[in-house]
Amino acid sequence: MRNPAPLLGLTGGLGAGKSTALQVLSRLGAEVLSSDAVVHELYEGDELREAVVARFGPQVAPDGVVDRSAVARRAFASPEDRAWLEGLVWPLVGVRVASWVERVRAQRPAPRAVVVEVPLLFEAGMQGLYDATIAVVSEEGLRRARAAARGHALLDERTARQLSQEEKAERATFVVLNDGTEEDLERELSAVLEKLGE
Predict the structure, then answer these.
(1) What is the strand order of the sheet 114-117 is part of?
(2) Which residues, in sequence order, are bridge partners of residue 133?
(3) 103-138 as b/e: b if 16+ CB within 10 A
(4) Closest among 103, 133, 127 to 115, alpha carbons compared
(5) Which pLDDT score, from 0 to 100, does residue 6 have?
(6) How far apart are CA 62 and CA 77, in angstroms?
(7) What is the fold of 7-40+82-197?
(8) Is there a cis peptide before residue 109, judged by omega within 30 degrees of 0?
(9) Domain boundary assignment for the chain
(10) At what angle do helices 182-197 and 18-27 cross, to 10 degrees?
(11) Phi and psi (nearest 5°) for 70?
């Protein structure tokens, strides 16, 4: 039996507007989850906090609270540290996401779609887990300005480990341009949901 709610993976580069797209999809009747929010939650637990402190030192968790920027600075500074962190975090996120998807897909009435925002969807080879994928893209200057305004440290290093916007767009089922207003974005995402419902 086909699941009534399609499972969508939402991705895009830093500053493309993934979080805004997720909010818009929620308004349009989708159940949504940010894998980044799951990571935030995991950092609040003992397991991940203790592991990053053991690896990077107590300065990454002053007063027992993980400073994600400090962890990012350490992890992105070397390929080994980054691989170690991703190897630790991604499986934990995967378990949480799978459990959430199972729960929301069992809801009746079913939501219009089930959407998980995964910044490194294609890089992590997770696209096969989804019925379809959406890449949010935006003009390069606009993207950089948005990312900088949000205080992303090591922007170039982070961007370097991601596929380019063009590569994400080529691999995605749907490409949504986010250069205009939120209303423009809503129209584009609404059209995607319409196509999925056909």
Answers:
(1) 31-34, 114-117, 7-12, 132-137, 174-177
(2) 9
(3) ebbeeeeebbbbbbbbbebbebebbebbebbbbbbb
(4) 133
(5) 92
(6) 20
(7) Rossmann fold (3.40.50)
(8) yes
(9) 7-40+82-197
(10) 60
(11) -65, -40
Residues with Cβ < 8 Å from 124, sequence gap 6 or more?
Answer: 86, 90, 118
Q: Calculate helix-pair angle for 68-75, 46-56, nearest 10 degrees.
A: 50
End-to-end CA distance of the chain: 17
For residues 21 and 113, give the distance between their C-alpha atoms in angstroms, rounded to a whole number: 13
Q: Write out the two tokens for 119.
A: 């910044």
Q: What is the DSSP letter of 164?
A: P
**Local confidence pLDDT in tens for the 198 residues of the chain:** 345 789 999 998 888 888 899 999 999 999 999 998 999 899 998 889 999 999 999 899 988 899 988 898 888 888 899 889 989 998 899 899 999 999 998 988 889 999 999 988 888 888 888 999 999 998 877 777 767 676 554 455 455 567 888 899 899 999 999 888 899 999 999 999 999 876
Place of tokens 């030192």: 57
CA distance 36 to 117: 8
Return the structure tokens found at 93: 């996120």
